[in-house]
Design brief:
The complex is a heterotrimer of chains A (477), B (298) and C (554). Chain A has 477 residues and is α/β, with parallel strands linked by helices. Helix content of chain A is 52%, strand content 13%. In chain A, helix 11 crosses helix 12 and helix 12 crosses helix 20. The longest helix of chain A has 35 residues. Chain C is an all-alpha fold. Chain C has a two-stranded antiparallel ribbon with strand order 1-2. Classes of the chains: A alpha/beta (477), B mainly alpha (298), C mainly alpha (554). Chains B and C meet through helix 1, helix 2, helix 5, helix 6 and helix 7 of B and helix 2, helix 6, helix 8, helix 12 and helix 13 of C.
Chain lengths: 477, 298, 554
């Protein structure tokens, strides 16, 4: 018996001792030191990294030996896509000819959102590509955790950068995209596209309009005439069509806002503001069209409507050109059609431009430099022309046009979109939280698309949008 | 109360033989009508899909139901453009590996949960079941982290390789649950007989229970194929080269690229479902029976 | 008595047989359970960890319950107190069970509380260790950036991350050894055959006790913090009154439920009615007390509650229809007519079709174009064509308007856009449910039906009195799977989602997805996922209680 009591007593002491050591002040101290240690190591590594690259840029950089450096490039063009073939061809050429001994491996990773999800996951696991194709706003997110290489020093570098001539040839809109407010460059444009009006010249002429609409009032007149024509003819199936296919997306809404003279930021340019008059006017303008039966909606791309004279105007990316061409061919419709910029009340024109951008995620200094060198090669005027011939996108610099002669000859309509390339206005992609704000604009545009709304109600929706945007921005600070 | 007695209170006179036959015929007709309405609703979208897959682009975008001309070449184009031949092989290999592992592990686990007494059994089982109720989106990143790390520590890489696509799905709660329901119905007497012969659990499982379980295994096979045919987000996340990508990725690539070419999208979609339809066709008898015998009594 | 003899005395053949049985059980479940732990339970734990932090792509500050209060407002604290209470009740129930068992067998198990405590502290130490180890693991990803990713480097970093939390691991390890020694010591010295059961139960008791007290204390301090913050901003968070009134309301509901349930057994009419009246009074009282809830709800995330409403519509619109249609079809198919295999196949096809394809077809069929199939059908029937997926207005409202009836907003019902998704969902799953119902029918003895038929029972009687009750286990299973499925459904809804539907199809899962993948609020999205988990769990429980009691196991 006494043996057992002793045994148990000993155990009790052991247990209590262990519990005491476990639950003592240990925990609190551990917690804080742990966090502090974490923070400091994170900070120092970040700073060191930054210092490292800067120093190397200044001193060792010319000596950097890139032989044998391998970089991976994630893009969004899947198997069987003709655009993938061009990327692969350019990569192959780069691997065979570059003087530094760099090897690039180009891999398709699904669509834009797949690539973004993969990079987000890779930021946790540590497995990342070097070069990645993504929306500028994604680069902004990754920059917030310090994962993106600032390309600005490389661009300006006398040895590895671009010449003044090359810099001058880049369109200002495309150049600004990818630059943060403090002048860092997170992404480099591969090409661009613009949101534009697709317009049926022949049908407009038959309706009695000899010229494309020069301002929003003329646009309304033509749309409503087309709608009236479809309502008046013998075919009951096309009643309610004829005007403009409107989908209340951020791109379409913002395009009109630009043409109406507005933009997303306040006058000081330091915060979002969606309550300026152009935002209200565009909503009222569209609702007025709707109320008069001059707009309608479709559940998929409106190409067949355009090609079958069910819509005088549809809104599209310039990259949709081949699909419109196919739709017209399919409908055996010989109408002359083309792209126009959006028009405002005083005849102001605008097109909402997007870039297809690539950026570099932080790796070793050698890989970072090698990545930039590849990007530079990928976006020379000559290669951009190859890329454009496969994709139908627009160039980002004036020098590319010289290489596009044959393409334009084969695709005469491309010229109408090419004319818009230099004037495209970019969204504030690098302004904080743009991706979230843009989705909120999508929602607001849909909410405002209702002819029963009064101006006050529209203003209330836009005021709420302002509040949401402010919340998204505040969350990041 | 005996079920029969409910009806004895209102016994009706039996109808004569002639009118009975007539009644039966009318009844049959009514049943057929309802069944046909059901089949019609089920199949219309399908017929639409097949019809669209045989149209030209212009026709595909109109609301005409049947094509004026049959464009069988759409299938050839879809097959070649989406590289289905490669993705097919990948999908089949991935499904078979997953299935093999999943069956092996779930059969043993289900057997233990159904027929062996051990401390903590029900608690563990409840814990497993509760994992079915968590939305998958928040578990994807930790799982990605796990497979990356297991690949770094272990002898073979997991990312871009078959383990990441198969091993996480080998521990399937649903399969364990389903098989457990089935195993629990095997009569105890059979086990006692095995014991008397000097056999244990292993022998009972392999010699008695498994041969009785062809049917639920069939069900798991079909459901596994359906599951891996539809999985998209995870395969994209854990592969960065096409080497191991499954057919859903091929279809997705194809749909996003041919998104405006509706007829090709439909042809591609139809190609991907053919194998599943075939598997179901050949297993459907067992399929129904197996569910019948597993009882699925909560 | 020497140790050897003791061991011999303990390991009687019967005990060895038991142990071998246990061992076989654990061995059999090990591979599947290990895999499910790695890929099913670890990620859930990880998500819980994430939900307690501010976390955008990467981990930031620990913010305790803030993500939860942002989602469901003050309800968080109330729920936390309830969970703590449940844990304490669980602890009490375990002790009661053990004591009863001991009394029955004449054991004296109280001394075993000690090894139980040790086992429990092992689990506590393990959780504590993981809590510290996880951030170290996560830091490895950052350390890999900018360096050549070799296996050696990774192993080195992994080693460092283990060393960083060595004290926590050691604590766990020593406790493990101590508990193993003490546990087996007691096993050797006290020869009750229920020794290990007692040890397990006591371990559960300590865990439940610690969880209950810990949670209650943690929540209490969080509430105090919330009040402290409120002093600065001058707003009264009103958590205590909420807690009291909701608890009171629930308590009254519970008593009402008891009274109601007992009423049926009352012999005298007067007492029966008294009980019913009392129950009704309590219900009203409970309802009034619960009136706090809408206010609390208003302080949470509106998107989340809207999402919950849409989810409930989706679930109610899908599950009952799907079950009714498939039960009907299964009964028809059971007639074993010629061609039934064809019909079975036809019904099952939608289930095997990739939803990317079927959704594309549905979008075309339910297009808002006037010439689209469904709209032309409507026109043929003399009705107005509809906007379908673009239509945010409720279906009842639309019907009422077309009949020129005034209709209140709150009864608008699910939006027409959601109705299309419901139709797609029903279309997809009817085949699967039919097959399972058919299987259930095969189990019902044919003779029973025939006997009833000879007895002159008509079809409806047979269905109501025989088929339906006998199918109840299947219905139960399918409704459970259906509810869980509709609450978790995401991909199909996402494909059908149009901005013109103004968020009327955004279910809870969609809300979680947008928070996680679009807004990159990992912490908040994880907290929402646990709220959804809690909802599904309680629905499962309610379904079990309500349906489970009526399930007839033939």
């Amino acid at each position: 018996m006494s043996k057992r009591v002793l045994y148990i007593a000993g155990l009790l002491v052991l247990v209590f001792g262990l519990i005491l050591t476990a639950c003592g002040p240990n925990e609190v101290v551990d917690n804080t030191t742990d966090d502090m240690a974490n923070n400091t190591t994170e900070n120092t590594t970040d700073d060191e990294m930054a210092n490292d690259t800067e120093e190397e840029m200044e001193e060792e950089e010319p000596m950097m030996d890139l032989t044998g450096t391998t970089v991976t490039f994630w893009h969004v063009y899947g198997e069987g896509d003709s655009r993938k073939a061009v990327i692969d061809a350019i990569v192959e050429e780069f691997n065979a000819t570059n003087e530094y001994g760099i090897t690039v491996e180009a891999l398709d990773q699904g669509q834009y959102n797949d690539v973004a999800d993969k990079v987000n996951a890779g930021l946790t696991s540590g497995d990342l590509p070097n070069i990645v194709q993504a929306y500028t706003s994604s680069f902004l997110n990754w920059d917030s955790v310090g994962a993106v290489v600032d390309l600005a020093p490389w661009v300006m570098d006398p040895m590895y950068g671009l010449t003044q001539e090359e810099l001058d040839s880049i369109y200002p809109g495309a150049y600004a995209d990818g630059m943060t407010l403090d002048g860092r460059r997170l992404a480099w444009p591969l090409s661009q596209s613009a949101n534009v009006i697709t317009y049926n010249y022949t049908w407009a002429q038959e309706l009695g309009f000899d010229a494309a609409p020069a301002n929003s009032a003329e646009l309304k007149e033509q749309l409503c005439a087309a709608a009236a024509a479809n309502a008046a003819d013998d075919n009951p199936d096309n009643d309610g069509t004829g005007g403009m296919v409107w989908y209340p997306s951020a791109s379409n809404y913002l395009s009109f806002v630009y043409a109406f003279g507005g933009n997303e930021l306040n006058e000081a340019g330091d915060a979002y503001d969606f309550t300026s008059q152009p935002f209200v006017d565009v909503a009222l303008y569209i609702n007025d069209l709707k109320a008069n039966g001059c707009t309608f909606e479709t559940e998929s791309y409106p190409n067949p409507e355009q090609a079958n004279r069910l819509a005088l105007v549809t809104l599209s990316s310039t990259a949709g050109l081949p699909f419109y061409a196919a739709a017209f061919e399919e409908a055996e419709n010989d109408d002359v059609w083309g792209f126009l910029p959006f028009v405002g009340p005083d005849g102001q024109t605008a097109a909402d431009a997007f870039t297809q951008s690539v950026g570099v995620l932080t790796a070793t200094p050698e890989q970072d430099l090698a990545s930039w060198l590849f990007i530079k090669f990928l976006t020379t005027a000559e290669n951009q022309a190859r890329w454009i011939e496969a994709s139908g996108y627009l160039p980002t610099m004036s020098t590319t046009e010289a290489f596009l002669g044959d393409y334009i000859a084969a695709q005469p309509l491309y010229q109408t979109s090419l004319d818009l390339a230099s004037t495209g206005q970019a969204e504030p992609q690098t302004f904080p939280a743009w991706a979230s704000v843009r989705r909120a604009i999508d929602g607001a545009a849909a909410q405002m698309y209702d002819p029963d709304l009064t101006e006050e109600e529209i203003l209330a929706i836009l005021t709420q949008l302002n509040a949401d945007a402010a919340e998204y921005v505040a969350e990041l600070q | 109360m005996d079920k029969k007695s409910v009806f004895q209170q209102r016994r009706k006179p039996l109808p004569s033989a002639g009118s009975l036959k007539w009644v039966l015929t009318v009844r049959k007709a009514v049943v057929y009508i309802f069944l046909s309405i059901g089949a019609f609703v089920s199949l219309v979208p399908f017929v639409w899909m097949i019809a669209t897959s045989l149209k030209s682009l212009g026709e595909a975008l109109t609301s005409r139901f049947f094509p004026t001309e049959l464009h069988f070449e759409n299938y050839v184009i879809a097959w070649e453009r989406a590289l289905f031949s490669r993705y097919f092989t990948n999908s089949v290999v991935i499904t078979l590996i997953t299935l093999a592992g999943s069956l092996l592990f779930s059969i043993f686990a289900a057997y233990a949960f159904a027929r062996i007494e051990f401390p903590g059994r029900d608690a563990i089982f409840a814990l497993l079941l509760s994992t079915m109720m968590i939305p998958a989106m928040v578990t994807i990143i930790p799982n990605f982290l796990t497979v990356t790390w297991l690949g770094r520590i272990g002898p073979i890489p997991w990312i871009n390789n078959w383990p990441a696509l198969t091993i996480p799905f080998m521990g399937s709660v649903f399969n364990v649950f389903m098989l457990r329901q089935f195993f629990a119905q095997v009569p105890d007497e059979l086990y006692d007989a095995t014991r008397i012969d000097g056999g244990g659990h292993l022998r009972f499982l392999l010699q008695i229970v498994l041969p009785l379980s062809k049917a639920p295994i069939m069900v798991i096979t079909v459901l596994s194929f359906i599951g891996s045919w539809n999985a998209l987000a995870w395969p994209i996340l854990v592969t960065s080269t096409p080497e191991w990508r499954p057919i859903s990725v091929g279809l997705m690539n194809f749909v996003s690229e041919a998104g405006q070419e509706f007829h090709l999208t439909m042809a591609g979609a139809f190609i991907t479902i053919i194998p599943i339809v075939l598997i179901y066709f050949f297993t459907q008898k067992q399929f129904t029976e197996s569910i019948a015998r597993s009882g699925l009594k909560g | 008595m020497g140790v050897t003899e003791r061991i011999q005395a303990v390991f009687t053949p019967r005990r060895i047989r038991h142990l071998r049985e246990y061992f076989t059980g654990y061995l059999y479940i090990a591979p599947a359970v290990i895999l499910i732990f790695i890929f099913g339970i670890f990620p859930v734990g990880f998500a819980l960890y994430v939900s307690l932090h501010r976390w955008r792509i990467k981990r930031s500050d620990f913010i305790a319950l803030e993500n939860y209060t942002r989602a469901i407002g003050g309800l968080t604290y109330v729920l936390m107190f309830f969970i703590a209470l449940l844990a304490l009740v669980g602890a009490y129930l375990i002790v009661r069970k053990v004591l009863r068992m001991a009394e029955e067998h004449g054991d004296r198990p109280l001394l075993l509380l000690l090894p139980g405590l040790l086992h429990a502290s092992v689990i506590g130490a393990l959780l504590r260790y993981l809590w510290f180890q996880l951030p170290e693991f996560l830091a490895i990803g950052d350390k890999l950036v900018g360096r050549e990713k070799t296996r050696e480097l990774f192993n080195q970093l992994l080693g460092e991350s283990f060393r960083a939390v060595r004290p926590e691991f050691n604590l766990f390890f020593y406790l493990l050894i101590a508990s193993a020694i003490v546990g087996s010591g007691f096993f050797l010295y006290r020869r009750s055959p229920r020794n290990s059961t007692y040890q397990n139960q006591f371990m559960m008791f300590w865990l439940a006790l610690a969880a209950g007290i810990g949670l209650a204390y943690f929540t209490y301090s969080e509430v105090l913090t919330a009040y402290a913050v409120a002093v600065e901003t001058g707003e009264d968070p009103g958590i205590w009154p909420q807690l009291i009134s909701i608890t009171g309301g629930l308590f009254l509901f519970g008593v009402a439920w008891k009274l109601w349930g007992g009423a049926a057994n009352e012999a005298s009419n007067r007492r029966f009615w008294l009980r019913i009246l009392a129950a009704l009074g309590l219900l009203v009282g409970g309802w009034l007390l619960m009136g706090e809830i809408p206010q609390i709800v208003a302080s949470g995330d509106q998107d989340l509650w809207k999402g919950l409403k849409v989810t409930v519509f989706f679930s109610l619109g899908t599950v009952p229809f799907q079950l009714a249609i498939s039960m009907f079809l299964a009964i028809l198919l059971y007639e074993k007519l010629k061609g039934s295999e064809f019909f079975r196949m036809a019904y099952f096809l939608p289930y095997v079709t990739p939803f990317i394809a079927s959704a594309a077809v549905f979008k075309q069929m339910f297009s808002n174009r006037e010439a689209a199939p469904i709209n032309s059908l409507l026109k043929g029937l003399g009705m107005l064509p509809q906007d379908w997926l673009f239509e945010p207005r409720g279906i009842f409202e639309i019907i009422a308007r077309s009949l020129e009836i005034d209709w209140p907003d709150w009864a608008a019902g699910p939006s027409l856009a959601l109705v299309v998704i419901i139709i797609h969902s029903v279309w997809t799953y009817v085949g699967y449910n039919t097959v399972i119902y058919l299987a259930g029918l095969v189990n019902i003895s044919k003779e029973l039906n025939e006997a009833a038929e000879i007895d002159g029972a008509n079809q409806w009687d047979i269905f109501r009195n025989i088929t339906f009750p006998l199918l109840s286990p299947t219905t139960y299973f399918l409704s459970l799977i259906g509810i869980i499925g509709t609450f978790k459904a995401f991909a199909t809804i996402w494909v059908f989602r149009e901005s013109l539907a103004l968020g009327t199809v955004d279910t809870f899962s969609v809300a979680i997805f947008t928070e996680f993948y679009e807004k990159l609020r990992y912490g908040y999205a994880s907290a929402m996922a646990f709220v959804l988990f809690a909802i599904i769990l309680s629905l499962t429980y309610i379904n079990n209680r309500v349906q489970g009691s009526k399930v007839f196991y033939g």
